[in-house]
């Protein structure tokens, strides 16, 4: 069976080495910049605010923190930077997988593929293939399907069913990862910002020379400035992915007329 989104055990890969794996092939089309509409968000109906939000998303990037000359503080900062970079990586991967999913429906949607419409087209392509949907947790939906059945049953090219399903499920995995870890980044950044003066005093208490202490404090303050950017970036990512998750949940209803997500 193909498992789209894995399970709740973080020690296991979300896509196991079964009949369904991570697909990397895409069609050679460029997607238009389609912004899906959601009535819950006022900024999506305000062109100026929408543009500002899209610009803030484009500016998000990984953070590189310098080494602080106090092992405990340095490890705390580096671990936080690593976690944030993983959130950013999942966020960018979510965008990529969503676009790759939509690429398979450009022809049927006049070049403007909207997620919910794409799912309906995919369901039609799949014909009598059994696709199971399960809400595994608050931020995680899982699709299960058999690639052998798809190959045997589908009247269309089975790859036009299997690969979109893979991309959809990969996107679900990245949504889960972002929404699980972004709050942790926010909490940890908040703690460090609150304890900024205390941590600087800890550096001053070390046995380093005066010059090294001054340099260490400068590096620490530079890192703190970067963490303020991290806090803003995490908030932007979380809000965007929360809306995307709602879109995926709503769109996934198209897999079943009688199934509630």
Describe the structure.
The structure is a single chain. Helix content is 58%, strand content 5%. It is mostly helical and 261 residues long. It has one domain. A hairpin with a 2-residue loop joins strand 2 and strand 3. Helix 2 packs parallel to helix 7 (210-252). The protein starts with a strand and ends in a 9-residue tail after the last helix.
Keywords:
261 residues, mainly alpha, 58% helix, elongated
Fraction of residues in helix: 55-70%
For the largest beta sheet, what order do the strands appear in spatially? 1-3-2
Number of domains: 1
Number of strands: 3
Let me know the largest β-sheet.
Answer: 3 strands, antiparallel
Question: What's the total helix number?
Answer: 7
Rg from alpha-carbon coordinates: 22 Å
Shape call: elongated
Mean of all residue-level pLDDT scores: 85
- Our measurement of the CA-to-CA distance between the termini, rounded to an integer number of angstroms, reads 21 Å
SSE layout and pairing:
Elements: E1 2-3, H1 47-58, H2 71-103, H3 115-126, E2 132-137, E3 140-145, H4 147-153, H5 159-194, H6 196-204, H7 210-252
Antiparallel strand pairs: 1-3, 2-3
Helix pairs in contact: 2-5, 2-7, 3-7, 5-7, 6-7
Summed up, what is this model?
This protein has 7 helices and 3 strands. It has 261 residues and is mainly alpha-helical. The chain has one domain (2-30, 66-255).
């Amino acid at each position: 069976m193909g498992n789209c989104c894995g399970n709740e055990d973080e020690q296991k890969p979300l896509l196991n080495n079964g009949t369904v794996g991570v697909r990397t092939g895409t069609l050679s089309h460029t997607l238009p910049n389609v912004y899906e509409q959601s009535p819950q968000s006022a900024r999506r109906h305000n062109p100026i605010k929408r543009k500002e939000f899209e610009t803030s998303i484009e500016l998000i990037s990984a953070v590189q923190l310098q080494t602080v000359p106090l092992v405990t503080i340095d490890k705390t900062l580096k671990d936080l930077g690593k976690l944030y970079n993983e959130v950013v990586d999942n966020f960018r991967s979510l965008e990529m997988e969503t676009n790759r999913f939509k690429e398979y429906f450009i022809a049927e949607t006049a070049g403007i593929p909207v997620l919910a419409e794409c799912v309906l087209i995919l369901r039609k392509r799949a014909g009598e293939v059994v696709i199971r949907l399960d809400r595994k947790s608050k931020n995680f939906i899982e699709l299960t399907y058999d690639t052998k059945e798809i190959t045997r049953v589908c009247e269309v090219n089975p790859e036009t069913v299997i690969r979109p399903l893979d991309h959809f499920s990969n996107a679900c995995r990245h949504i889960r990862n972002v929404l699980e870890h972004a709050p942790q980044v926010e909490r940890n950044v908040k703690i460090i910002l609150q304890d900024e003066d205390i941590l600087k005093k800890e550096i001053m208490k070390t046995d380093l020379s005066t010059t090294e202490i001054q340099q260490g404090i400068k590096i620490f303050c530079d890192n703190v400035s970067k963490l303020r950017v991290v806090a803003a970036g995490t908030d932007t990512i979380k809000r965007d992915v929360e809306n995307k998750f709602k879109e995926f949940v709503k769109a996934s209803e198209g897999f079943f007329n009688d199934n509630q997500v």
